[in-house]
Structure formats: C-alpha cells, structure tokens
Write a structure and sequence with these properties.
- About 70% of the residues lie in helices and about 5% in strands.
- The chain has about 400 residues and is mainly alpha-helical.
- The chain has a single domain, classed as Growth Hormone, Chain: A (Up-down Bundle).
- Helix 3 runs antiparallel to helix 13 and helix 7 crosses helix 12.
- The chain is globular, with a radius of gyration of 21 Å.
- It is found in: Membrane.
- Keywords: Membrane, Transmembrane, Transmembrane helix.
C-alpha cells in the first residue's frame, strides 16, 4: 500500500516474517474478516493475528473513543478551566503560579503512565480505565468546592493528572491489539474522542458558568464523563490472555530507552507536546487579554479541537499508506508554520485568531494520534504499553 521501509509493521523483525491474508478493504460482518498474520520463527507460540475490523474490533474503538472523550477531552479543555479559575477563585495569584496547577496535571497525566503500561500489558485495559474513570469523576466533583490554591493543586493537578494517566495509555493501546495495517486510521478515529470532548466541554462550561456557577458546571461535566466511562468499560475488551504480574514485570523499565530509535522518537514527542499545549492552555487567555469577548475566547478553544477531529482521521488514514513517521513529521511542520504565520501575527484580529485555531487544530490532531502509532512500530505488541508509557516519561517533564 505504498508504505515506506521505515514504516513496516513492527512485529515483523529479523526473527519474524509477515504474511497477509486477503487484501485489506472494507470489512463487514457478513464477509470473512480480513486478517494480518504475524508469525514468529523459533518458538511454539501461535501467530498473532489482527482482524483489521469486525464488530468486536470497532466496538473496542468506540469504547476507546468514549474513554478518551472523558479524559483527553478534559485535558484539551484546560484553557476553559484555567481562564475561569485565574479570573475568579485564584484572582489574587499570578498567572505563572496558576499555570503550575495545569502543568502538574499534564505532567502527571503522562508520567504516571509508566506504572500503568506494564499493568496494561499483563492484565489488559479494563481495570485501569475503571480506576481512572472513578478518579476523573471524583476530581470533577471535588473541584466544585475548591477555593484555595492548594485545593486546586491537589484535586485538579494531582488527582486529575493521576487519573488521566490510568486512562490515556490503555485506551490508545488496546486499539493496537486489533489493528496493524490499519492502525493509523483506527487510532485516529479513537483519539478523535479527545478532540470531541475538547469541543463539547469548553462550550458547556462557558454556557453554564453564568447560569449555575462553577460548582454545578463541573458537576454536569462529571455526570457526562461518568456515563461515557461506564459505556467505555462495557465496550473495551482485552485481546490477550492475562500474564503473571510479578514485581519485576510491574516495575518501570527505563532501560528500553537505550534503544536509539525509541529514545529519539520519545525526545521528538517531548518537543512536540511542549509546543502543542501552549495554545490549548493560553489561547483563551490571550484572546481575553486582547479585548475579545468571553464567548469568542472560549469558542477559540472549541475551534482548535473541532479542527483536530479531521486532523486525527485524515493523517491517520494517510499514514497507513504513506508512512506513519512521514505523516507525523508533516503534521509537526504544519503546527510550526501555523504558529509562526498565524498566531504570532494575529494581534487582536478575530479573523486571524479563528484561522489559527482551525489550522493549528487540524495539524495538532495528527500529532496526538500518530505519536503512539509510531512508537508501536518500535516494539512488539505484547510490550506496547510498557514502551509507550516509558516514552511518555520524557514527555511529562516538559
């Protein structure tokens, strides 16, 4: 399908060979399921097969979409929380000190996954997503009664970030258990749930803040997230049988960063995420500081995430044909050009701010969905959670 040598399926290494069944195409349940077979030489284990579609696989994608809607959707909406808290509950604190709350949230969201990754590889995603969902709903409910700086730091920063780490990696990783040659597309569809949440939550919060207040606004969001998490847990299924979870297996393994390809990819993701979350955190505040209305400023955050929905589907689809690393590089360049050409020259122009939000949103969507797919090409599927979580340790220190 025109995939470059760099972007061959990762499991087909020097000690394994790749064979494919019938050509990959549109899959319906009335037809034989198209499969990609990964066969290993030199052992008695059965080959790993990827259905590349079918009812079970696409229901798992839907479950992953719902889990990411309620986890990454909140991360993509931090600008809506940041702007309100900065101007109300924590108005007496400097912007840099308030930003630390959301920095801790994002940092723990990536860092704590280093423990969740090995558990996911051994036991599957359901228990982790359940625990993360409970923590997410709890921090949203508790945030409504927060009044002091340390309240927000503990509730939003620590509890929210830790809960995010339990959901994010497993929800993305389980999609890779069912797809190989179509992994870019499937992961893009699943991760678009985070973008959809980033559209819905800022608009809901902007509407509810003046009507019912901050506390009830966060409770409404908590209810939406709770319903989505329940559906996600019911839909997501583990693919492989459980493995023994010894202390050695559960501990983080930073030695895998000795792999030059993984280390370079993780460092690239570090710089990519560093730039990605600046607009998500500050575009709303920037617009407010330049005299834009509250409704317009919150709409910009929704526009970023609206642009990211096709930005996760389209590059994901193309990456399966043109190469996953190739498309990731292209989307990173697109983000950089939009920052330099649109945001830095926007001033107080509403038209340029809207153009930046849509263009940056499209390219940033590809960044988020393609990074885990690229990392998945550097390891076997049984170790995917551990590799992806370890790579995110570098991302967390940004």
């Amino acid at each position: 399908m025109g995939v470059s040598e760099l972007d061959k399926v990762p499991e087909a290494s020097s000690s394994s060979s790749l064979t494919t069944g019938t050509p990959i195409g549109t899959v319906s349940d009335a037809e034989p399921i198209k499969q990609t077979f990964i066969t290993s030489n030199g052992n008695d284990e059965p080959p790993i097969t990827y259905t590349e579609g079918g009812t079970t696989a696409w229901l798992v994608v839907l479950g992953s979409w719902l889990a990411l809607f309620s986890s990454m959707g909140l991360m993509n909406s931090i600008g809506a929380f940041h702007a309100h808290i900065q101007r109300n509950q924590l108005a007496g604190h400097t912007p840099s000190s308030v930003a630390w709350i959301f920095g801790v949230y994002c940092g723990l969201g990536f860092f704590c996954g280093i423990q969740a990754g090995p558990v996911f590889d051994a036991r599957g995603p359901r228990a982790l997503i359940t625990a993360g969902g409970l923590g997410t709903v709890a921090f949203l409910l508790l945030m409504g009664v927060c009044t002091r700086y340390w309240h927000f730091m503990l509730v939003f920063g620590v509890l929210g970030g830790t809960s995010l780490s339990l959901v994010f990696g497993p929800a993305v990783g389980v999609v890779a258990h069912y797809f190989s040659s179509r992994r870019g597309l499937a992961t893009g569809i699943a991760s678009s749930g985070g973008s959809a949440g980033g559209v819905v939550f800022p608009l809901v919060l902007q509407r509810l803040y003046p009507l019912v207040g901050f506390a009830w606004a966060t409770r409404v969001v908590a209810l939406v997230c709770a319903c989505a998490f329940v559906a996600a847990v019911l839909l997501i299924r583990k693919r492989f049988p459980p493995k023994p979870l010894s202390m050695a297996r559960a501990l983080p393994d930073l030695t895998i960063l000795r792999n030059p390809a993984l280390c370079c990819t993780a460092m690239g993701a570090f710089f990519m995420e560093w730039g990605l979350f600046v607009p998500l955190s500050y575009l709303t505040l920037y617009a407010l500081a330049h005299g834009q209305s509250s409704s317009f400023s919150y709409m910009l955050l929704a526009l970023i995430n609206a642009g990211a929905v096709p930005g996760r589907w389209v590059p994901g689809y193309l990456s399966d044909r043109l190469g996953r690393f190739n498309m990731l590089i292209a989307t990173i360049l697109g983000c950089g050009m939009s920052l330099a050409c649109l945001w830095l020259t926007s001033g107080s122009s509403p038209a340029r701010l809207v153009a930046f939000a849509v263009v940056f949103g499209f390219f940033s969507g590809g960044n988020v969905s393609l990074a885990p797919v690229c990392i998945g090409q550097l390891c076997t599927i049984e170790s995917y959670g551990r590799y992806y979580a370890t790579a995110n340790v570098l991302v967390s220190i940004r």
